[in-house]
Amino acid sequence: MRGVVDPASISTEMIQMLAPDGSFVGDGDFEIDLKEEDLRQIYRHMVLARRADQEGTNLQRQGELGVYTPLLGQEAAQVGSAYALSERDWIFPSYRELAVAMYRGIDPSSVMHLFRGTVHGGDWDAREHRFAYYSVPIATQMLHAVGFARAAQIEKSNIVAITYFGDGATSEGDFHEACNYGGVWKVPVVFFCQNNQYAISVPLSKQTAAPTISAKALGYGMPGYRVDGNDVLAVYAVARETIRRAREGGGPSLIEAVTFRRGPHSTADDPTRYRTKEELAAWEAKDPIARFQTYCKNEGVLDDDFIKSCDDEGAQIATNIRASIVGAGPRPAIDLFNNVYEEMPETLRREYKQYEEEQSAREGDE
Amino acid sequence: MRGVVDPASISTEMIQMLAPDGSFVGDGDFEIDLKEEDLRQIYRHMVLARRADQEGTNLQRQGELGVYTPLLGQEAAQVGSAYALSERDWIFPSYRELAVAMYRGIDPSSVMHLFRGTVHGGDWDAREHRFAYYSVPIATQMLHAVGFARAAQIEKSNIVAITYFGDGATSEGDFHEACNYGGVWKVPVVFFCQNNQYAISVPLSKQTAAPTISAKALGYGMPGYRVDGNDVLAVYAVARETIRRAREGGGPSLIEAVTFRRGPHSTADDPTRYRTKEELAAWEAKDPIARFQTYCKNEGVLDDDFIKSCDDEGAQIATNIRASIVGAGPRPAIDLFNNVYEEMPETLRREYKQYEEEQSAREGDE
Amino acid sequence: MASITLAQGLNEGLRYAMTQDPKVVCLGEDVGKLGGVFRITDKLQTEFGEDRVFDSPLAESGIVGTSIGMAIYGLRPVAEMQFDGFTYPAFEQIVSHAAKYRMRSLGRVSLPLVIRIPYGGGIGAVEHHSESLEAYFTHTAGLKVVTPSTPSDAFSMIVQAINDPDPVVFLEPKRRYWVREDVELPVTDGMPFGRAAVRREGNEVTLISWGPCMRTCEEAAEEAASDGVSVELIDVRSLVPLDIDTILASVKKTGRAVVVHEAQITGGYGGEIAARIMEDDFLSLHAPVLRVAGYDMPYPPAKLEDIFLPDIDRVLDAVDKVLNY
Amino acid sequence: MASITLAQGLNEGLRYAMTQDPKVVCLGEDVGKLGGVFRITDKLQTEFGEDRVFDSPLAESGIVGTSIGMAIYGLRPVAEMQFDGFTYPAFEQIVSHAAKYRMRSLGRVSLPLVIRIPYGGGIGAVEHHSESLEAYFTHTAGLKVVTPSTPSDAFSMIVQAINDPDPVVFLEPKRRYWVREDVELPVTDGMPFGRAAVRREGNEVTLISWGPCMRTCEEAAEEAASDGVSVELIDVRSLVPLDIDTILASVKKTGRAVVVHEAQITGGYGGEIAARIMEDDFLSLHAPVLRVAGYDMPYPPAKLEDIFLPDIDRVLDAVDKVLNY
Ligand SMILES: Cc1ncc(C[n+]2csc(CCOP(=O)(O)OP(=O)(O)O)c2C)c(N)n1
Ligand SMILES: Cc1ncc(C[n+]2csc(CCOP(=O)(O)OP(=O)(O)O)c2C)c(N)n1
Ligand SMILES: [Mg+2]
Ligand SMILES: [Mg+2]
Questions:
Q1: Domains of chain D: which residue ranges?
Q2: Are residues A121 and A250 in the same domain?
Q3: Chain C residues 276-315 within an 8 A CB cutoff of chain D
Q4: What are the pLDDT digits (tens) for D156-185?
Q5: CB A331: neighbour CB atoms within 10 A?
Q6: Contact between D57 and A181 using a beta-carbon 8 Å cutoff
Q7: Is the same domain home to B321 and B346?
Q8: Domain residue limits at B142
Q9: Cβ contact B55:B318 at 8 Å
Q10: For a FRET experiment, which of B262, C12, C156, D288 has its CA 20 to 30 Å from that of B363?
Q11: Measured in whole angstroms, how far is the alpha carbon of residue B164 from the centre of its chain?
């Protein structure tokens, strides 16, 4: 019909290269340029992330973390996309991107410290790792990514920004403003949605009536990609294309990686209240690591030694996290007072003095 | 390409029935069910609105209004859509919908009083006219319309809500949240965008990279219509279809009425800073009233007597507005104190007492 | 008589109000099937159906904005913000519309709307989950701002908030969700808004607080008593409208006052109360009204929240100071 | 030496800062070709190009949110909110990120970001164009909040704000945009943030105000003088950090203080200043610190704004009251 757009006309097909059973199906529109060593590294990063993530849940169950937000099931979406970035590119995460953080060389304990409550944004140097601080207010980090990319564009720096967010995040005004700004300014940014089917208890069908999340890209004048988020090859291929286009001045893209959050929303959540065992089982059958392992084995890229070395490395990482977290006390209070402004204003200085006096008084009392 | 959506694939065609020269071109997808008397009433409402609008500008130039936001050029978009509503339907306007207000029987002076600064939202009874108060914070009213429609749905009342907003409004987070809520809840609401090409000085090309505003509908799972907003028949036809569908439980729609704001953004604005004479002239040639007048005359629906009677009625309305506005003083201060809460709290009561004492003291001084 | 928690008081209050009035609806993120992350709407969707209790998409401006539309229609929406720190996206709808609609309609349309916000710290949460945001709303004319500190007040105040013709920001002190009280439900003799509660009588110092800090103040008052200092403890409950009379009557008696709240001290509501006491009864004051409050910094990480939150020692310190001024 | 308006002072200050530092960029609605609705960015786009001065889409959370991203990159963005009342959509980005980023990064990343807001009433505007929103920001730790009242301060303070390592909410009193002063540009000896200006010396009453109300206070002080009352007038300028020392020094001398602001009285920044004075120097006070401020109602329609805004009579009334307490 002239002048009318109809959501029913949007296809819900996904880009996929590996079937859930690990067989290679390929996608004629995308090439894979990965060497054997790349495949092994991708496998390794997924395995390490899964192990570190498990340790987060363990530590929370043991009372060492206040809360933890597991990524179980989303390893391919995270590692596949991160692997397509160049070192100088920047990452603006939400609060579930442990695999991406680790890929960028961030010690997973620095992430866990956030959940323990010793720090807020995360205990890493954002500039060193080009990985911004975790962002809990949903979708807010997307605007930071766009502003960062606008700055990169102004400074002609060749840097791309990628931002991670969930399916629920697509409902927030900030998602919209970020995509719209990105489109108008045509900045080098990739919007990477991990559609893990739920926002806490709310399923996607109650989050949006859009035929797909990727279709939202049309409203911002950018291409939208819907990819099997449990297929690390497909995710990588799509991310690589969008990052390259962004770097070449072609503007932003929106990627919807279709995946599933197999754990609870956070350790405080009880998913049995809102989803079925069957649903979970169906997604377990699509496990991103098992699938990729099968593929790599079939391709002769992975042997048992390497698999074991990854598992061992994972165990070591878990041990390290545990060593860093268990019993870790608070940081010194002065850090709080020092980090409100570059220079402590008079009023705060007085408050600090008062705090110190009270502390000494207490110690005197004891 | 499998799994990829491309904005370049979106057509920018418009639904149109009347060419700018007034000749009937029609659109096979839409029927017109208007009787001759309807055509005359539509013409009349457009003429009256234009005259009242002109009076707004005049009064502002004479210092009687603080500011005024003219609708010149947007008469067809407003009257065409309003004419498709039933009496019980509700309207959630922005601040430029004088034609819609008048169509709903609101005395245009009640609107002008807002611009004079004697009242805030407008001096009418929203429940009587089913026309909510003017809303200046961009896009905020869209959420009210959606909430209202959700209530209508809960109460099974058969009422539809329509909300008006501009092209600039589509950038706000509230636009997005409203469309998304509307889609998910599948409520009886019509989102009516008057794309008048500018948001103050910012042209559409700097507002969004979307191929059309109507394409944004896809991201919310609703149909989007792009219609010639200066063609009152086409606007009416599209509005009628979307309102009917909403009433029947088919959910929301987004309409983009392509038009032009021929006056300044407001009387405080200087459009010569950002747009050309040629651009303005091109749109004057597409005038919605002249076009419709030609069509109606050709159809034998309008004669000179009726045209004159409309002009006379317009002149009378202008006189009435002037009589109501010129020199009108403030409303009594007690109205302010009374309208913060249903019952004046103690603190405010004291403030009022203090205010009164000061007033008497002043009067004593004089 | 049953022993219920403050959270249950709210849940029962919602149930009661929804039973009484079919126009009451509840919405927000996860309020339906899940019953809210704090389970305040637990089982309400099952009992009242999806048209009375429903999930919203993840967008707070949307929650408040659509609630305003529902209220214009004639419903009485009860909107939940999932946490204090996630109220900010709704700020424009709250400040520019909810608070102003009555004024902008010349009193023709009022918005009987409740915005429920679990608020404050002390539960070891991650960032943005511990904000004490009352001052943003107490400064916004057109809103009522209330906060219960006991299970029975929780019940009666949520019912009252729902019945109120004006928009009410209903702050739920989350670290008190699990305190218990023996309550006979329904509580129908709850005090009207604008009435503080004197939780403990005394005649040497007036201690003024609300919601989250009431426990600390009770303990401080007790400890003071054991040191022979007689503290009168006021639970403000209704921040706006403020029951200044109860406060002034107490200060007239004691001549000394300390206000305690979690929010950052600068610009906090404690300053307002202190200024009001001074303006209204300067001559009764034997000492300055002091404030014990959060420091002027973002709410700290959980492991450090104890240094930020007013504790018994800090409260007693201030009590000492005004006594020995 | 040229006679310039406060608006020109800002425009020249922006030009100066942009010339000095290529990292400074300006963005906001209509700031480019149009030069902003108040022309504060007039001609800057022509002079510095579209990569230094650019329009944003119509979305305030977007303006602040992307500015934060630019600041993380290393630019120094100056973001314009078109009017006070349209800052609210950006509230979350301001409160949850701009104010907290330094803390959440453990001091590793600071955000040198200026949020310019034309603010306050008195210009006969329609609704939402006259909001005095300083209290929302003064209560938000991590932000600096400043407001100039003279053309020379406008110049030096905007330059300072841009050079400041922390996020600054820069409130431009729009009814003073057109006041004139003879100024030698550039003003390089502007006082640092956190320093109030004593605009008039006196020894009987301290009058404290800032930005929008300074004119009213100057006139009131003058009128008081002609009645033989000696008023000391303080222009706070920097609300956060607050120059409490200058205020206390004055009150020590006068023993009396009146704070004047446009914002609604309840929860306004006047309460903070009053409470601070009382806490810090109770014994010097001969009378309560009084506040003259807007009533507790939404800002009224233009034709009634005069009754809302503090005027000379109300200020003098308060001065009388503290004098004759
Ligand atoms: C502005 C805001 N509102 C609400 C929340 C509370 N909350 C935390 S996570 C979450 C769900 C997010 O879902 P989604 O975006 O799909 O990401 P996922 O957790 O599934 O990775 C909600 C509602 C928040 N963090 N921020
Ligand atoms: C939230 C908000 N931001 C900014 C403004 C200032 N403003 C008033 S109208 C306008 C442009 C609106 O453009 P558009 O939506 O296209 O509607 P039009 O005026 O063209 O009818 C702007 C920026 C506002 N009213 N509200
Ligand atoms: Mg999700
Ligand atoms: Mg427009």
A1: 2-183, 197-323
A2: yes
A3: 276, 278-279, 282, 285, 287-291, 295-298, 300
A4: 999 999 999 999 999 999 999 999 999 999
A5: 17
A6: yes
A7: no
A8: 11-331
A9: yes
A10: D288
A11: 5
Q: Are strands A198-199 and A189-195 parallel, antiparallel or unpaired?
A: unpaired
Give, to the nearest 10 degrees, the angle between helix B304-325 and helix B36-61: 40
Q: Do domains C2-183 and C197-323 have the same CATH topology?
A: yes
CATH architecture of D197-323: 3-Layer(aba) Sandwich (3.40)
CA distance C63 to C45: 17
**Nearest beta carbon to residue D105 from set A126, A340, A346:** A126
- CB contact (8 A) between residue A143 and residue D65: yes
What's the gap in Å between the CA of B22 and the closest CA on chain A? Answer: 20
Which residue of chain C has the CA closest to D90? C89
Same domain, residue pair A157 and A306: yes
What is residue C98's DSSP assignment?
A: I
Nearest residue (by CA) to ligand 2, atom 19, is B199
Q: Which residue of C has its CA nearest to B159?
A: C73
Rounded Cα–Cα distance for residues B289 and B42 (Å): 10
Here the tokens at position D185 are 């540009």
Model pLDDT for residues D110-142, shown as the tens digit of each residue: 999 999 999 999 999 999 999 999 999 999 999
CATH H superfamily, domain C2-183: Thiamin diphosphate (ThDP)-binding fold, Pyr/PP domains (3.40.50.970)
d(CA D278, CA C9): 39
A191-245 pLDDT, tens digit each: 999 999 999 999 999 999 999 999 999 999 999 999 999 999 999 999 999 999 9
Which atom of ligand 2 sits closest to the CA of residue B266?
Answer: 19
- What tens digit of pLDDT does each residue of A16-33 get? 999 999 999 999 899 888
pLDDT at B366: 60
* Residue D194 vs residue D295, higher pLDDT: D295
Q: How far is the CA of A218 from the centre of ligand 1 (A)?
A: 24
Q: What is the pTM of this model?
A: 0.98
- Write out pLDDT tens, residues B14-51: 999 999 999 999 998 998 889 999 999 999 999 999 99
Instruction: Please indicate if any CB of chain B lies within 8 Å of the CB of D89.
Output: yes
A215 & A113 share domain: yes
> Under 8 Å CB-to-CB from C302, ≥6 apart: which residues?
A66, A116, A117, C124, C125, C126
DSSP-assigned letter for residue D262: E
Rounded distance from Cα A167 to ligand 3 centre (Å): 5
> Within this chain, do residues B182 and B322 fall inside the same structural domain, yes or no?
yes
Q: In chain D, what residues touch C142 (CB-CB under 8 Å)?
A: 297-298
In the predicted model, residues of chain B with pLDDT beneath 70 are 365-366
Question: Does the CB of D308 have a partner CB in chain B at under 8 Å?
Answer: yes
How many Å lie between the alpha carbon of C58 and the closest alpha carbon of chain B?
Answer: 9
Q: Give the CATH number, domain containing residue B265.
A: 3.40.50.970
Inter-chain residue contact B2 with A29, CB threshold 8 Å: yes
Looking at the annotation, which residues of C are catalytic? 129
- Is B1 inside a domain boundary? no
Based on its alpha-carbon atoms, the radius of gyration of chain A, rounded to whole angstroms, reads 22
Nearest 5°: the CA angle D151, D152, D155 is 90
Query: What average pLDDT does the segment A268-278 reach?
Result: 96
- Ligand 4 centre distance from Cα of residue D22 (Å): 33
In a domain, A6, yes or no: no
Q: How many domains does chain B have?
A: 2
> Residue B34 in contact with residue B236, Cβ under 8 Å?
yes
Is D65 part of the contact surface with chain C (CB cutoff 8 Å)? no
Show the tokens assigned to C302: 């959980």
